[in-house]
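pasting for ref
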Amino acid sequence: MTGWLIIRTDYRKEHYVAQQIRNAGFDAWVPVQIITARPQIARRITAKAQLQTIKEIPVLPRRLFAAVPVSLQAELEGVRHLVAIERNAALEAISVPFNQIHAFRVEIDRENTAA
């Protein structure tokens, strides 16, 4: 395995596709930004103003990363809401090295813990 593949999904189906890839026995990661939100009514002074929800918003909409060997890419064809594997001009799957994914994960985690 040379790295992580970039997977393109349907709109707002990143987590679903990632779970299906994990169920197939591969590692998958959706980079998300964690934010806290409050209901619209919270602008007024009410008990609901104290309510906050935590939302995970994908950093790269409709994209996720999966650690799938090149020889086993065909196993992903049956995953629902998976649109395509990102490919270069020579129609080869784009692979991101492990160290770059690790650095990206560290940076995303640092941003989420700071918030």
